[in-house]
Design a protein that fits this description.
Blueprint: H1 8-19, H2 32-41, H3 50-79
Length: 80
Protein backbone atom coordinates (compact mmCIF):
# COMPACT_ATOMS: atom_id res chain seq x y z
CA UNK A 1 0.00 0.00 0.00
CA UNK A 2 1.20 3.49 -0.82
CA UNK A 3 1.14 6.14 1.87
CA UNK A 4 -0.99 9.17 1.10
CA UNK A 5 -0.07 12.46 2.70
CA UNK A 6 -2.66 15.21 3.19
CA UNK A 7 -2.45 18.66 4.68
CA UNK A 8 -2.21 18.83 8.44
CA UNK A 9 -5.35 20.95 8.83
CA UNK A 10 -7.38 18.50 6.74
CA UNK A 11 -5.95 15.55 8.67
CA UNK A 12 -6.87 17.20 11.98
CA UNK A 13 -10.40 18.01 10.70
CA UNK A 14 -10.92 14.38 9.73
CA UNK A 15 -9.52 13.11 13.04
CA UNK A 16 -11.84 15.47 14.94
CA UNK A 17 -14.85 14.31 12.90
CA UNK A 18 -14.09 10.69 13.75
CA UNK A 19 -13.41 11.47 17.41
CA UNK A 20 -16.77 13.27 17.67
CA UNK A 21 -18.75 10.24 16.50
CA UNK A 22 -21.18 8.74 19.00
CA UNK A 23 -21.36 4.96 19.34
CA UNK A 24 -24.15 3.33 17.37
CA UNK A 25 -27.12 3.00 19.76
CA UNK A 26 -27.90 -0.47 18.37
CA UNK A 27 -24.40 -1.95 18.60
CA UNK A 28 -22.98 0.23 21.38
CA UNK A 29 -19.72 0.85 19.50
CA UNK A 30 -18.52 2.90 16.55
CA UNK A 31 -19.21 1.02 13.36
CA UNK A 32 -17.14 0.90 10.20
CA UNK A 33 -20.05 2.56 8.38
CA UNK A 34 -19.96 5.54 10.74
CA UNK A 35 -16.23 5.97 10.21
CA UNK A 36 -16.56 5.60 6.42
CA UNK A 37 -19.31 8.24 6.39
CA UNK A 38 -17.11 10.63 8.41
CA UNK A 39 -14.29 10.07 5.93
CA UNK A 40 -16.59 10.56 2.92
CA UNK A 41 -17.98 13.78 4.41
CA UNK A 42 -14.38 15.02 4.43
CA UNK A 43 -13.78 13.98 0.80
CA UNK A 44 -11.80 10.82 1.59
CA UNK A 45 -13.18 8.13 -0.70
CA UNK A 46 -12.06 4.60 -1.61
CA UNK A 47 -10.30 4.03 -4.93
CA UNK A 48 -12.92 1.48 -5.97
CA UNK A 49 -15.54 4.20 -6.53
CA UNK A 50 -13.28 6.57 -8.50
CA UNK A 51 -14.70 5.55 -11.90
CA UNK A 52 -18.27 6.06 -10.64
CA UNK A 53 -17.43 9.49 -9.24
CA UNK A 54 -15.72 10.55 -12.48
CA UNK A 55 -18.64 9.24 -14.54
CA UNK A 56 -21.12 11.16 -12.38
CA UNK A 57 -19.06 14.34 -12.77
CA UNK A 58 -19.11 13.94 -16.56
CA UNK A 59 -22.87 13.40 -16.57
CA UNK A 60 -23.35 16.48 -14.38
CA UNK A 61 -21.15 18.52 -16.75
CA UNK A 62 -23.12 17.31 -19.78
CA UNK A 63 -26.43 18.16 -18.13
CA UNK A 64 -25.12 21.59 -17.18
CA UNK A 65 -23.92 22.27 -20.73
CA UNK A 66 -27.26 21.12 -22.15
CA UNK A 67 -29.18 23.36 -19.72
CA UNK A 68 -27.00 26.37 -20.58
CA UNK A 69 -27.55 25.72 -24.30
CA UNK A 70 -31.32 25.54 -23.76
CA UNK A 71 -31.31 28.79 -21.78
CA UNK A 72 -29.29 30.48 -24.51
CA UNK A 73 -31.71 29.20 -27.16
CA UNK A 74 -34.68 30.50 -25.15
CA UNK A 75 -33.09 33.94 -24.90
CA UNK A 76 -32.32 33.95 -28.62
CA UNK A 77 -35.94 33.08 -29.48
CA UNK A 78 -37.21 36.07 -27.51
CA UNK A 79 -35.17 38.48 -29.61
CA UNK A 80 -35.96 36.98 -33.05
Amino acid sequence: MTDVYIGTARFERIAEAIAALEPCPFFGVLTADQIMMALAENDVLPEIIRADVERAALVDAEIGARNRALEKAKKTEKFC
